[in-house]
Amino acid sequence: MKPYWTGVFPALTTQLKKDQSLDLPATAQHIETLISSGVSGLIMCGSLGENQTLEPEEKRAVVRCAVETSRGRVPVLSGVAESSTAAAIRYVRDVEKLGALGVMLMPPMSYKGDSRETVAYFRAVARGGGLPIMIYNNPISYANDITPALFAELANEKKFVALKESSGDPRRITELHNTIGGRYAIFTGVDDLMLEASILGIDGWVAGSGISFPKENQYLWELTRAGEWEKAREIYRWTQPLMKLDTHLHFVQYIKLLVQEAGLGAEWVREPRLTITGDERKRVLQIIRTSFENRPKIPKRKVN
């Protein structure tokens, strides 16, 4: 079965002004930079996009901005993190009208259901909207674990076309292959397991920290597709300190600070999050600046 989506689908930040209002021009500018780097798609309003702290109309405005900016060059997906099944269905229908070509569906955020309820939720959202769906499995952050067995149970729903595996256990990639074969496009969602996941066999990567160094991020992906593992290891070792910023409680603040240091946006976040300060800020800035000082030279990307 040919995967529905493949390649690098970065999860973008939602750019904000200091007063916490949306900065859509800054978001659009970042989108242009990412498209120029060669990404295969865009994911707006995910966890990194601060979905749960955006107002309903703000989420829709961000998706509209992405669709208008991309102009059909790459598919735009939106994260779905609503608290009720009805709200999730309504949101999927709305972003479809706005021109999104898919959604990344997270489990319900305010209720940790059992496996029966989780499966029922996913099926209801799939049947209530018209878009193809990437299911997001992140049991570390969202308490619900979509196991390979549950993915097999959901396999008869055609709108489920991809899955984002973020359990933190690279063994899951092989377990998924053994359980569901080529039924879904498998994306890794843990930045600093990307190379391990690539060796085990994935179709795509929902990249987080790499939105701040998109050229190197895309080059790393292309090296894994070509099986050039020695070169891939070299780039991966450079990216690893930056990628680890994506696996922390303050990952949104860290990556927004990384984006700011790269000159691609600002660090302002939506409360209750606050920008980091003190020793924590100094430590993260040291990681970022040391990495950027040692930035590897990569060949210019060929534009088809």
| Count of the separate structural domains | 1
CATH superfamily: Aldolase class I
- The poorly predicted ranges are none
Please name the CATH architecture.
Alpha-Beta Barrel
State which percent range the strand residues make up: 5-15%
Biggest β-sheet, characterized? 8 strands, parallel
Report the end-to-end length measured between terminal Cα atoms: 26 Å
Mind telling me the CATH class? Alpha Beta
Determine the CATH topology.
TIM Barrel
**SSE order in H/E notation?**
EHEHEHEHEHHEHEHEHHHH
How big is the Rg?
18 Å
Which structural class should the secondary elements be placed in? alpha/beta
Strands side by side in the biggest sheet: 1-8-7-6-5-4-3-2
Mean pLDDT: 95
- Strand tally is 8
